[in-house]
Amino acid sequence: MKRIRNTILSCLALPALAFMAVSCGQEDETEARIDELLSQMTLREKIGQMNQLSVSGFSQKVADDIRRGATGSILNETDPAVINEYQRIAVEESRLGIPLLVARDVIHGYRTVFPIPLGMAATFDPELVERGARLTAEEVTASGIRWTFSPMLDVSRDARWGRIAESSGEDTYLNAVMGAAMVRGYQGDLSDSTSLAACAKHFVGYGAAESGRDYNSTWIPPRAMRNVYLPPFETAVKAGALTLMTSFNDNDGVPGTGNAELLKDVLRGEWGFDGFVVTDWASAAEMIPHGFASDGRHAASLAMNAGVDMDMMSNVYSAYLEDLVKRGEVKESDIDSAVRNILRVKFRLGLFDNPYVDVGKALEVQYNDSVMTAAYRTALESAVLLKNNGVLPLDRSKIRRVLVTGPMADAPHDQMGTWTFDGQKEHTITPLDAIRESWGDDVEVIYEPGLSYCREFNSRGVARAAEAARRADVILAFMGEEAIMSGEAHCLADITLKGGQREMIEALAASGKPLVLNIMAGRPLVLDMESEIADAILFSFHPGTMGGPAIADLLSGKASPSGRLPSTFPAASGQVPCYYSHNNTGRPFRGDETMLYDIPLEAAQTSLGNTSYMLDAGFNPLYPFGYGLTYSAFEYSLPTLDRQEYSDGDVIRVSFTLTNKGKAEATEVAQLYVRDLVGSVTRPVKELKGFRRVTLAPGESSEQVFELPVSELAFVGLDMKKKVEPGEFSLWVAGDSASGESVNFRVIR
Ligand code: BGC
User: I need a labelling partner for 396 at 20 to 30 A (CA). Which of 67, 151, 295, 376 fits?
Assistant: First the structure.
């Protein structure tokens, strides 16, 4: 009865009445079919649906498991013929004919590899990211894979952590916007077999791993959890994410896979999530080494009672759940709820009606024009120009010889970045390929890599590159990190360029020739010396299959860079974690624009000199969040607001004029920041609340308006309730998080 009432309520919340009728009808029908299936299932068959196995190729053992209903989902098989055969066994030979759900980590593209998620976030272009996810879904579902373990929504503020590459960076809002775009793109409208179930992961706090070391404990207090780490997941659930994955870390002593409070009370209770929850790889069993579970049986009971529906690769559900139910330690009604959640997703994906793929067509969609064009466009928009003393765009009329050098100039595998099981390097276009192809006729391209991979020390190679530099008119040096240097379990203590790269950059600069650095990496790096001596720095993350043409077009000026940093770039490794949206100390850095306080002179004098400052690294990062240059220059007017005072429920209209003051057409990313000046708890010095890409011709001005609902200013304060606190706020619009002139407004009760 309770279930039916929930369905009706959620249907009433739908906007269009006609759609409501169809959708409610479908939902009721689905629930009725699930009821019928559940009534026929044995306890073992139910537990089988809750078990996920990793599979590679056809195996009789896996086939037998599927036939007897012992597994409801497989991951890692990609051959459409094998997937079809497993599906056939599930549908035609298992007792109840329940189709399999086939999963894969398709994190930033399938065959056609897009920039790493951190690079996608740098586009500040959610429509493009959504389109990329849709095309990726079309590419991968043609092989019968209907579930991806993406998007990763872990707010990541520590560049030492290798998985920052998989995130949308340090900001809660940006992670939420990009995550929702990916969910919409992957899943489409769930109307056909190109819909790919998204998985919001890792729930939750995994990005805050202590000291940036993977899998490490996190210490996120409940308020920060609510204000910083949970919102991207809530947004993904609202966007319709069909599944969610628990995280490896223990937060304040509770592993993600055993956290009933978050999985039951918050996810299901508060947010109304009706998809299913899967563990991370073996994370149920890993509660044993955590010291949270005493053995496999205990781990199964903890995960089950915390609200985890599917066990990925621990095998503790299949081994112990039946017995736990018999002993009364797990309720069969909870097993039924879990199976219901899983079957609901299988129905929503249309797997019962259409379980097979056309094997002959699977290859046709791979690397097609649409997906390659989207990958190119995303690589183009993700590259961030950090420095330019005027050498870019290159003036080809003055260049006869160009030196292409560095370990990333022709590294087709490495430029794809982490989590690219399925990208094929034969299809990758490197910068060397693209430069030869597009400039080769009128410019002599000298290729001398110097180092064959990023971590190599090779003084002779460096000397050869420096020698070649003397013969060239401009140096294009491609440096960075190999794909293997970031991603899961690939963390660093020191985030400067590795191997002989710094030595090589110094040797190239010593040639006196213009030095353009192109950096491809999986994380923010400390580029202190590089920023001093290079003439220009273009940071393109790991840009994927089409990285080469995108970079070549940016260097030549065919396009102007428009990416913005989704993460702060520190001035020294010891500054991390560093992020723009921090709280203030009582003794902030002098000169900070937020220092306009009316502090009694004596108090200010007591703290004279004692500020939150590092003697050897100062206070400021090298490049702030949101930063990125173009080949032009933009000017912002002071924003004007439609009112001075607002109440909850109002929308703040922020108007400003943006002018392209330079000589090239370019795209600016206008960013809206807010500061809540005084709260019941201390508030961040700034928070991103909106952004927009605006393309303007030279000299062109444009009137822009942001509409910011006052409700977006809500946060969880002292009483642990989320609400907007009345008082004074500052607001400004700028091209990065470290600039802009603010105006104030008040929120009244
Ligand atoms: C990772 C997940 C991934 C899973 C399945 C784990 O090691 O943490 O992000 O989805 O493996 O491959």
Answer: 376
Residue nearest to atom 7 of ligand 1 (CA): 281
Query: How many folded domains does the chain comprise?
Result: 2
Angle at 418 between CA 408 and CA 388, to 5 degrees: 45
- Last residue of one domain, picked from the residues 362, 384, 399: 362
Per DSSP, the residues of 466-531 read HHHHHH-SEEEEEEE--GGGSSTT---S--S--TTHHHHHHHHHTTTS-EEEEEE-SS----HHHH
Q: How far is the CA of 280 from the centre of ligand 1 (A)?
A: 6
Strand partners, 716: 722
Which residue puts its alpha carbon closest to atom 11 of ligand 1?
281
350 CB-near residues (< 8 Å, 6+ apart):
190, 192, 193, 195
In a domain, 498, yes or no: no
CA of 258 to the centre of ligand 1 (A): 17
Best of 55, 148, 281, 310 for a ligand 1 pocket test (most atoms within 8 Å of beta carbon): 281
pLDDT tens digits for 633-645? 999 999 999 999 9
Take atom 5 of ligand 1 and give the residue whose Cα is closest.
Answer: 281
- Chain position carrying tokens 């110097």: 450
Domain assignment of residue 309, yes or no: yes
Q: Under 8 Å CB-to-CB from 661, ≥6 apart: which residues?
A: 632, 633, 634, 635, 699
Instruction: Identify the pLDDT of residue 442.
Output: 85
**pLDDT mean values, one per 10 residues, the chain (749 residues):** 32 37 78 98 98 97 98 98 98 98 98 99 99 98 98 98 98 98 98 98 98 98 98 98 98 98 98 98 98 98 98 98 98 98 98 97 96 98 98 95 98 98 97 93 94 98 98 98 98 98 98 98 98 98 98 97 98 96 82 51 59 86 98 98 97 98 98 97 97 98 98 98 98 97 97
Task: Give the whole-angstrom CA distance, residue 675 versus residue 667.
Answer: 26
Q: How far apart are the first and last CA of the chain?
A: 40
CA of 187 to the centre of ligand 1 (A): 20
We report the CATH number of the domain holding residue 358 as 3.20.20.300
Per the structure, the complete domain to which residue 697 belongs is given by 634-747
User: pLDDT per residue over 363-398, tens digit each?
Assistant: 999 999 999 999 999 999 999 999 999 999 999 899
225 strand-pairing partners: none
Atom of ligand 1 nearest to the CA of 248: 8
**pTM of the entire predicted model:** 0.96
Within 10 angstroms of residue 600's Cβ, the number of other Cβ atoms is 8
CA of 356 to the centre of ligand 1 (A): 26
**Nearest alpha-carbon partner for 463 in 520, 535, 511, 515:** 511
Residue nearest to atom 12 of ligand 1 (CA): 105
d(CA 151, CA 97): 30
Domain assignment of residue 446, yes or no: no
Residue 704, domain CATH: 2.60.40.10
Q: What is the DSSP letter of 443?
A: S
Q: Which of 321, 344, 362 is the last residue of a domain?
A: 362
Contact residues of ligand 1, CB 6 A cut-off: 105, 149, 201, 280-281, 488
Residue 473 lies in a domain: no
**669 close to 692: Cβ distance less than 8 angstroms:** yes
User: What is the whole-number distance in angstroms between the Cα of residue 202 and the centre of ligand 1?
Assistant: 9
Per the rule left: phi > 0, alpha: psi between -120 and 50, beta: everything else, 419 is: left
Q: Which two tokens stand for residue 73?
A: 């989902």
The residues that are catalytic are 280
Tokens of 94: 């298992």
Annotate 16-35 with three-state secondary structure: CHHHHHHHHHHHHHHHHHHH
Helix (H) or strand (E) holding 117: helix 117-122
Look-up: residue for tokens 């370019």? 666
